[in-house]
Design a protein that fits this description.
single chain, 210 residues, mainly alpha, 86% helix
Length: 210
């Protein structure tokens, strides 16, 4: 048998728990009603008549004691289930979320009543706005391609500039060599012009003989 004190203690905590989780919104209220209704229907299957059928001799000889035990057991099952429901609701913040949902619905209804809808309907949007929304992704893709092409051209320009610098250095070296050869040739011409014609013929003949 169950002690009366333990069942009374379990029941004494229920008003505080119910008060703590007492909801405000209609959806939270409805959830609480469904839980209580489901629990009551479940406990109906544990009626005194069915318990008596399970213990016929005890029901016949000690009906009052069996009835008292059945009542204590019923109260214990109800309080345990209600406590478990309460813990689940608290752990998952079910009532708070339902109340927040109700508040959002009420706020939306009020905005609709005063004509302050926060979401603009598609058929009220300016056609130009719709067109811009459609073309923005295309333009962004084009801009990306242009940036890539610009970077490619810049890399090619850098390569061409480096090659041009090398060719410029080679050209300057060739120009310097050409100036030196021209200077030496001029000196040779000046020197040859100072030699008399007769001696020049002798120099030419000597060169030929070599």
């Amino acid at each position: 048998m169950f002690e009366e004190g333990s069942s009374t203690s379990a029941l004494s905590t229920q008003p505080e728990q119910r008060q703590h989780i007492h909801p405000n919104g209609p959806r939270a209220q409805k959830l609480k009603q469904i839980l209580q209704k489901s629990l009551s229907e479940t406990l109906l299957s544990y009626s005194f008549e069915k318990v008596s059928q399970c213990f016929p001799k005890l029901a016949e000889n000690h009906s009052d004691a069996l009835k008292s035990a059945h009542e204590q057991m019923t109260r214990f099952l109800r309080s345990s289930c209600e406590e478990e429901f309460s813990n689940i609701l608290k752990k998952r913040h079910v009532l708070e979320k339902l109340n927040e949902f109700d508040e959002l619905i009420n706020a939306s209804k009020k905005r609709n009543e005063i004509g302050m809808q926060t979401v603009e309907q598609i058929h009220y949007i300016n056609p130009a706005t719709i067109l811009r929304a459609k073309t923005v992704p295309i333009k962004e893709e084009e801009l990306r391609c242009l940036k890539e092409e610009f970077m490619k051209i810049q890399r090619e320009n850098n390569s061409y500039m480096a090659e041009l610098a090398i060719n410029k250095s080679r050209l300057e070296a060739l120009s310097k060599t050409t100036r030196e050869i021209t200077s030496e040739f001029k000196k040779a011409v000046d020197l040859a012009s100072q030699i008399p014609v007769e001696e020049m013929q002798d120099v030419i003949d000597a060169i030929i003989k070599m």
